[in-house]
Amino acid sequence: MSRSIWSGDISFGLVTIPVALHPAEERNELAFHLLDGRDMAPIRQERVNSVTGDEVPWEDVVKGYEYEPGTYVIITDDDFRAADVKATRTIDVLGMVRAGEISTLFYDHPYYLVPASTAARKAYAILRDTLARSGYVGVASIVIRTRQHLAALMPVGDALVLDILRFPYELRDSGDLDLPGSDLTSLGVTDTEMALASQLVEAMTAPWDPSAYHDTYREALLDLIKHKAETGEVLKPPAAEGQPAGGELVDIMSLLKRSLDERRAAGGA
Questions:
Q1: Residue 252, class by beta-carbon neighbours within 10 Å (0-12 exposed, 13-18 middle, 19+ buried)?
Q2: Per residue in 149-195, pLDDT tens?
Q3: For a Cys staple, 112 with which of 18, 22, 93, 131, CB 3.0–4.6 Å?
Q4: Residue-number span of the structural domain to which 131 is assigned
């Protein structure tokens, strides 16, 4: 199992569900190294003090916010957590929307949520199956590292998935682009062309099978690398010198009823 990158609670009304956040994406990118083209030695990137020119060890590196030119406020990991303790430990479900209402443009990065204790499994399953049956997704907020995100909480098979959403300000307005309008007549589009296009779409229609698709460019690049290695087109850098070779059980039904009553009393029903 992958390592979790965050742990906290899903806050759903008065129900809290301890969970851990795991990446849903598997990184399989080819790693390329920057080399000095003269002798093929790897290029090393160093942390250098801009005033003294000395290399800065990791233990002396801190984060600073420049609030005036040349003047910084140092922010520690404890400061990030202390700014809003609840926000850094909670996936706060703000509301529910139909899954189809969220444009695909907003979806950015998926994560799996895993129950963090045996006691959390029941509440986790209730929330997951309730969302699956209702057709709704939860709109939630979460702080990961040093940034707050909007997110969609949704069921995918046996898992609850938290998909990070982009905020509206992070998307460009398509109105700024030179796009053809919806008046097809002015574009010279005929009924026959539309009918043919529709037939083509139907002909290409098939059940979604992700295993049927491959990263053909990555495969071709690996073949090229293998060929160059087998034919001797491999350059080795010179030898480096001077370098060392379950929380407590709770009454979920009661909490759900109380949450619903509070929502109704507040006019949310």
A1: middle
A2: 999 999 999 999 999 999 999 999 998 889 999 999 898 888 888 88
A3: 22
A4: 1-28+61-170
Residue 107 within a domain? yes
Q: Please calculate the CA angle 223-220-208 and round it to the nearest 5 degrees.
A: 130
- C-alpha–C-alpha distance, residues 39 and 48, integer Å: 24
Listed in sequence order, the residues at least 6 apart from 208 whose beta carbon sits closer than 8 Å to its beta carbon are none
Q: Mind listing the pLDDT tens digit for each residue in 192-229?
A: 888 888 888 887 888 989 888 888 878 877 887 787 77
- Does any domain span residue 215? no
Q: What is the pTM of this model?
A: 0.71
Token representation of residue 179: 């796009």
Measured CA distances, 142 to 104, 182, 184, 201 (Å): 20, 38, 43, 39
Beta pairing, strands 90-98 & 6-12 = parallel
